[in-house]
Write a structure and sequence with these properties.
The protein is an alpha/beta fold and about 250 residues long. The protein has a single domain (about 5-120, about 135-245), classed as TIM Barrel (Alpha-Beta Barrel). The chain has helices spanning about 5-10, 25-35, 50-60, 80-85, 100-110, 120-125, 130-135, 150, 155-160, 170-175, 190-205, 215-225, 235-245, and strands at about 15-20, 40-45, 70-75, 90-95, 140-145, 165-170, 205-210, 230-235. Bound molecules: 3-hydroxypyruvic acid (3PY) and magnesium ion (MG).
Length: about 250
């Protein structure tokens, strides 16, 4: 079970470093995982070009390294969540969580009865000697708080049993709060919203992360006390390197 890589980083009371992969090529995952300094790889199945077949290849590409593999998905789709977990992913980051009820549905999709609604898949869950119920409890569950409704209900979202923490989507949250789109934000109303979300999570003993597109902003968020930071986002990293490749 590779969710332990991320959890052991948290157990050391420090932030976990995510490599955010949106380009649907397992070779990128191999490069990111092989870099050796990421605790988890996130496969962006919401806004990236990663479908289920590619996700499986990416998972296998990561398998040579001690790294946790998560998928960011667009909704609390229990069928997709069950499929991803059966495929061997360690957890899910679910976009646009608006309420505790939605957070409960996400957790339920990752747990077997009587705790949840996940269907028992013989191949993955039936590995001899493993306890499927215990393994399901190790699945990492991170709803995204990235809307005015999510912000309003953040206390009840983070209180849901089985939610490990929340991830802030600064772009969608800014749009929803009327501050427009953007990343790596420093506007005061946005920072106030970020602080409120992080403090709510920490009050419940849960984790809080925030998306970033530059290593500098990720470093800043680590210093501010976030538990999940994004020092590498493939598209932005490639764009930044392309910008320095013009010779004249
Ligand atoms: C956002 O900024 O809204 C995100 O979801 C980042 O991935
Ligand atoms: Mg978003």
């Amino acid at each position: 079970m590779t969710s332990t890589h991320l959890r052991s980083r948290w157990d050391q009371r420090t932030y976990a470093r995510l490599a955010w992969v949106s380009i649907g090529d397992p070779q990128l995952v191999e490069l990111a995982a092989g870099a050796g300094h990421f605790d988890a790889i996130v496969l962006d199945m919401q806004h990236g070009t990663i479908d289920q077949a590619v996700a499986l290849q990416c998972l296998r590409a990561a398998g040579r390294w001690p790294v946790t593999v998560l998928a960011r998905i667009a909704s609390d789709d229990a069928d997709l969540i069950g499929w991803l977990l059966d495929a061997g992913l360690d957890g899910v980051i679910v976009a646009m969580c608006q309420s505790a009820q939605m957070a409960q549905r996400i957790v339920a999709a990752t747990r077997y009865a009587p705790e949840g609604t996940r269907s028992y898949g013989v191949f993955r869950a039936g590995t001899p000697g493993s306890d499927p119920l215990a393994a399901a409890r190790e699945v990492i569950v991170i709803p995204m708080v990235e809307s005015a409704a999510g912000l309003q209900h953040v206390d009840s979202i983070v209180a849901v049993d089985g939610v490990d923490g929340v991830l802030i989507g600064p772009g969608d949250l800014g749009l929803s709060l009327g501050h427009g789109v953007g990343q790596n934000r420093t506007e005061l109303p946005m920072v106030a919203a970020f602080d409120a979300i992080r403090e709510a999570a920490h009050r419940q003993g849960k984790r809080c992360g925030i998306f970033a597109t530059t290593p500098d902003y990720a470093r800043q968020t680590a210093a501010e006390g976030y538990d999940l930071v994004v020092p590498w986002y493939d598209s932005a990293a490639i764009k930044a390197s392309l910008a320095t490749s013009a010779l004249d």
